[in-house]
């Protein structure tokens, strides 16, 4: 028996868990995958949206702007990568300049600060690599974040404050049991007073187990190019194009760790697991990105990837108590990553108002992430090696990740159990050679920790 069960350990589920641990509540997160951040939260643009394009009065607008304002302090408190690098929305046709004005007015209505309409000369002065434009909207509060670092930070802090996490556990049924819910999984059953459905593209499956009004979530696949850090300064800001009904278009942006990222495509599909990249999708991304920046050095691409966005049947987030003590957090597409911490607050308030739960006086808001050896000064590096010589052994040459960092990632709260788990916590394997060099040593460290043969170590 638990107070609150959260289904899904993505950015939203983990943010809700962290908020709930601020109160005296028994919280359990159930995740069908091996780790947190295995779905939409791991494969997206990593943009901290300013909040100028959501319809005024919508949940998207309210929670986007609130999440944006929370992000700088959260990044410090929870120690994850974030940069307030600003954004530009480009217009290439003078006849469409009204679209920029509409975004500006919408942003003002939503309470977004730091918006400016720019002339073509001002745009060129800020970003010389851009093609000629008719003008642009500058959003000074926009930024970029590392989505897996952020999600892992929420999860670790929630865990350290008492939340349970059950991985490799798939929910197969939910039924009302008196005043509670009986949650059946492939690892057994338990009861919960509240259920929060944060299951991403599977949110409709979970919702439909409980509610008579059926929900449909459509996976929308977005394909990306990730380019080497050598060309990460092609643009300084996140470059958007005027949005369409299918999304905010193809963007060109530096990442929080200094790579250049281009994408995504936007294709509605049926398969909730189909994260393949396609020749057609990537060709479309290249062509459309070329409208913003000519000569993007795609020869410096180090990997391609795709992710699935959970698109609901409304044009807004679906966050509501859909049945007694059953709360949906569904259709959390863009700007879902930005909004995640605010969604956590929003759902926590819904539950606390019904339970009257008392504050958890022992709650500790801070979390320290894995030390990134490469980001330290030479003096700090030497001091760290003196304390622990394993920080002097470089395992990942591309990202300068040490054995000490990998051991920390494996041994810490909710420690990594797979190569991808190590990669998302340390960046070992994210560099130019894409794990070609560091895989054997990383596998050996995982096998040592869990006492398993090398052949049992998995990528994910």
Strand content: 15-25%
How many strand elements? 22
CATH superfamily of the largest domain: D-Amino Acid Oxidase, subunit A, domain 2
Shape: globular
The largest β sheet comes out as: 8 strands, mixed
Structural category? alpha+beta
- What is the CATH architecture assignment of the largest domain? 2-Layer Sandwich
Low-confidence stretches at least 5 residues in length (pLDDT < 50)? none
Give the distance, in angstroms, between the N- and C-terminal Cα atoms: 30 Å
CA radius of gyration: 22 Å
Helical content stands at: 25-40%
Give the helices and strands, then pairings.
Elements (H helix, E strand, L loop, with lengths): L1 E6 L3 H10 L6 E4 L16 E2 L10 H20 L3 E2 L3 E5 L5 H14 L4 E4 L1 H7 L8 E5 L3 E3 L1 H14 L3 E3 L4 E7 L2 E6 L2 E10 L5 H8 L7 E10 L10 E4 L9 E4 L5 E4 L3 E2 L10 H11 L11 E11 L6 E6 L2 E5 L5 H20 L22 H10 L6 E3 L4 E2 H9 L7 H8 L12 H12 L10
Parallel strand pairs: 1-2, 1-12, 2-9, 5-14, 12-20
Antiparallel strand pairs: 3-8, 4-8, 5-7, 6-7, 10-11, 11-12, 13-16, 13-17, 13-18, 15-16, 19-20, 21-22
Helix pairs in contact: 1-5, 1-8, 2-8, 10-11, 10-12
List keywords for this structure.
FAD/NAD(P)-binding domain; D-Amino Acid Oxidase, Chain A, domain 2; Arc Repressor Mutant, subunit A; 8-stranded mixed sheet; 31% helix; globular
């Amino acid at each position: 028996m638990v107070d609150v069960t959260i289904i899904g350990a993505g950015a939203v589920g983990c943010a809700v868990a962290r908020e709930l641990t601020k109160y005296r509540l028994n919280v359990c997160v159930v995740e069908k995958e091996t780790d947190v951040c295995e779905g939409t939260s791991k494969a997206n643009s990593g943009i901290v949206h300013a909040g100028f394009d959501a319809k005024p009065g919508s949940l998207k607008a309210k929670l986007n702007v609130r999440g944006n304002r929370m992000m700088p302090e959260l990044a410090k408190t929870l120690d994850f990568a974030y940069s307030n690098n600003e954004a530009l929305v480009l217009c290439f046709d003078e006849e469409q300049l009204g679209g920029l004005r509409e975004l500006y007015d919408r942003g003002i209505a939503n309470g977004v600060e730091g918006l400016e309409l720019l002339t073509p000369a001002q745009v060129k002065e800020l970003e010389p690599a851009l093609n000629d434009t008719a003008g642009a909207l500058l959003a000074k509060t926009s930024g970029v974040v590392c989505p897996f670092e952020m999600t892992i930070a929420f999860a670790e802090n929630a865990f350290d404050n008492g939340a349970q996490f059950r991985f490799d556990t798939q929910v197969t049924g939910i039924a009302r049991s008196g005043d509670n819910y009986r949650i059946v999984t492939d690892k057994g059953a338990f009861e919960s007073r509240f259920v929060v459905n944060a299951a991403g593209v599977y949110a409709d499956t979970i919702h439909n187990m409980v509610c008579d009004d059926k929900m449909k979530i459509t996976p929308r696949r977005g394909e990306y190019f990730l380019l080497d850090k050598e060309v990460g300064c092609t643009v300084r800001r996140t470059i958007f194009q005027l949005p369409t009904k299918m999304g905010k278009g193809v963007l060109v942006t530096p990442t929080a760790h200094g790579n250049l990222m281009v994408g995504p495509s936007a294709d509605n599909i049926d398969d909730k697991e189909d994260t393949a990249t396609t020749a057609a999708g990537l060709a479309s991304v290249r062509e459309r990105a070329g409208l913003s920046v000519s000569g993007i050095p795609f020869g410096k691409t180090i990997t391609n990837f795709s992710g699935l966005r959970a698109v609901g049947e409304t044009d807004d987030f679906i966050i509501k108590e859909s049945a007694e003590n059953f709360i949906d957090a569904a259709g959390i597409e863009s700007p879902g990553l930005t909004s995640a911490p605010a969604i956590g607050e929003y759902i926590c308030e819904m539950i606390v108002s019904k339970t009257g739960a008392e504050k958890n006086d022992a709650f500790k808001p801070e979390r320290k992430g894995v030390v990134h050896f490469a980001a330290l000064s030479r003096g700090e590096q030497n001091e760290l090696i003196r304390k622990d010589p394993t920080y002097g052994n470089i395992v990942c040459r591309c990202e300068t990740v040490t054995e000490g960092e990998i051991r920390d990632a494996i041994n810490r709260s909710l420690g990594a159990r797979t190569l991808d788990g190590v990669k998302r916590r340390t960046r070992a394997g994210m560099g130019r050679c894409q794990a070609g060099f560091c895989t054997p040593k990383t596998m050996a460290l995982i096998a040592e920790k869990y006492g398993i043969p090398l052949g049992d170590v998995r990528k994910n």
